[in-house]
Write a structure and sequence with these properties.
Elements (H helix, E strand, L loop, with lengths): L15 H19 L3 E5 L4 H14 L3 E7 L7 H12 L3 E6 L1 H8 L5 H22 L3 E5 L4 H6 L19 E3 L7 H10 L4 H4 L19 H21 L1 H4 L2 E5 L8 E2 L2 E2 L3 E9 L7 E2 L4 H14 L3 E6 L13
Parallel strand pairs: 1-2, 1-4, 2-3, 4-5, 9-11
Antiparallel strand pairs: 6-9, 7-8, 9-10
Helix pairs in contact: 1-2, 1-7, 2-7, 4-5, 9-11
The structure holds xanthosine-5'-monophosphate.
């Protein structure tokens, strides 16, 4: 039997009861697969890896070793939330690595989008590999592969980078949610007690804010982007758009314009709002954000974020524009 094919008989998980029975079934399977051995997991804080972590903590407790690599390109408060939920609330065996300096040093002066992505992906593997080698007798690698990943690729979650671990690091894979669709993963995550802020979150690219801090990344512009993005998210939460819009974020280009602040000339970067709806990310339409919300966001970002002096709105559907700017 090919275990990578979802059986026709498998019921769509839509309720807590169905999720609970899926969880019980997977706990038994994982225990049988790993016995008393250790399992390693790259925990990004995204929906899929978070749900796998919570499930494996239930199944094997401290035999699971979670590694959270902060590449310095996370959104505001994200790494802190991973630590709070997994280390403090779920008592996970969590290794936290702040690799911000390593990533930003490597990215210094690099403006070309593909090159930036390669550096971020490559450095992630190096950091993860270094940590993995420090641990004794880890035989298994858990991955948050989900069914669309299998349907769309060869089953290895390219964005999660661990697919590219060096040849000599041989692990058997543990992929408890590989037959689930995204909506089912969220139902299972809730049944496992994960907070809605983690389970219902919008998609976030592996290279993170790195592809939204356009061109060569600098620390000050990255900081401005992170703060502006936090304001956008807060205001979308406040007006209810966060519940309905598929993906929304800020991009900050590497250019300045002239402005005026406190009666003085004030050169700053523009913050570009992008808010899109889609079902499969292959095409996307633009969310029509009410003008009062746009005004509020503009007011807050220009007043609260150092270095930003204009707020722009991206009205481009996909195609022609991709969802991300890089
Ligand atoms: P584009 O920009 O290609 O994005 O229209 C489509 C969707 O994919 C997300 N995206 C990524 N997700 N790693 C990811 O996990 C990546 O490198 C990556 N690049 C883009 C993007 O945010 C959008 O949801």
């Amino acid at each position: 039997m090919n275990t990578n094919v979802r059986p026709d008989t498998m019921q769509r998980i839509t309720t807590k009861e169905l999720a609970d029975s899926f969880i019980a079934e997977q706990i038994a399977l994982v225990r049988e697969q790993v016995g008393d051995k250790k399992v390693l997991l790259a925990l990004s804080g995204g929906v899929d890896s978070s749900v796998v972590a919570a499930l494996l903590i239930k199944a094997i407790g401290k035999q699971l070793v979670c590694v959270h690599v902060n590449h310095g390109l996370m959104r505001k408060g994200e790494s802190e939330q991973v630590i709070e939920v997994f280390r403090n609330q779920l008592d996970a065996n969590l290794i936290y690595i702040d690799a911000t300096d390593r990533f930003l040093d490597k990215l210094k002066g690099v403006a070309e989008p593909e090159k930036k992505r390669k550096i971020i992906g490559g450095e992630f593997i190096v950091v993860f590999d270094e940590e993995a080698r420090k641990l004794d007798d880890v035989d298994f690698l858990a991955q948050g592969t989900i069914y669309p990943d299998i349907l769309e690729s060869d089953g290895v979650k390219a964005h999660h980078n661990v697919g590219g671990l060096p040849e000599d690091m041989k692990f058997e894979l543990v992929e408890p949610i590989k037959l689930l669709y995204k909506d089912e993963v969220r139902v299972v995550g809730k049944a496992l007690g994960l907070p809605s802020s983690m389970v219902d979150r919008q998609p976030f690219p592996g290279p993170g804010l790195g592809v939204r801090c356009l061109g060569a990344i600098t620390r000050d512009r990255l900081h401005a982007l992170r703060e502006a993005d936090a304001i956008l998210r807060e205001e979308f939460d406040n007006c209810g758009l966060a519940k309905t819009v598929w993906q929304y974020f800020i991009a900050v280009p590497d250019m300045k314009s002239v402005g005026v602040k406190d009666d003085k000339r004030y050169e700053g970067w523009p913050a570009i709002i992008r808010a899109v709806n889609t079902t499969d990310a292959m095409t996307a339409t633009i969310e029509e954000i009410p003008y009062d919300v746009l005004h509020k966001i503009t007011e807050r970002i220009t007043a609260e974020v150092d270095g930003i002096n204009r707020v722009l709105l991206d009205l481009t559907p996909k195609p022609v524009g991709t969802i991300e700017w890089e």
